[in-house]
């Protein structure tokens, strides 16, 4: 792999993560799943969205390669696709809060 190819690959990977984090519901799903795997219905209830909306967001996150579905009988639960994602999200959140501690005060982000 050349340096140019690596840069394009890295750029695409970061763009996928940025897309995933650009929506508050998807960001909430990722933050919830860093704590523990969950069923879509539980995520929908916790994030106060419909099950259909949650299904759409989970499909997006699967497409970005950030979460994976784990069938369990007639139900499916979700988890982060890689163990490195939870600490990465923690670090990213720490950086954001360090740079702008009052950025997201519950009234929406003014960034």
UniProtKB/TrEMBL annotation:
Pfam families: HTH_5 (PF01022). GO terms for molecular function: cadmium ion sensor activity; DNA binding; DNA-binding transcription factor activity; lead ion binding. It comes from the Bacteria. Residues 6-100 form the HTH arsR-type domain. CDD domains: HTH_ARSR. One of its GO terms (biological process) is response to cadmium ion. Gene3D superfamilies: Winged helix-like DNA-binding domain superfamily/Winged helix DNA-binding domain. This is HTH-type transcriptional regulator CmtR. It comes from Occultella aeris. The gene is cmtR_1.
């Amino acid at each position: 792999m050349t340096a140019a190819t690596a840069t394009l690959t890295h750029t695409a990977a970061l763009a996928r993560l940025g897309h995933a984090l650009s929506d508050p519901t998807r960001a909430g799903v990722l933050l919830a799943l860093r704590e523990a795997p969950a069923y879509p219905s539980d995520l929908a209830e916790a994030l106060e969205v419909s099950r259909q909306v949650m299904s759409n967001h989970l499909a997006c996150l699967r497409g970005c390669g950030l979460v994976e579905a784990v069938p369990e009988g007639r139900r499916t639960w979700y988890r982060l696709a890689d163990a490195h994602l939870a600490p990465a999200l923690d670090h990213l959140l720490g950086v954001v809060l360090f740079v702008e501690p009052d950025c997201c005060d519950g009234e929406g982000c003014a960034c």
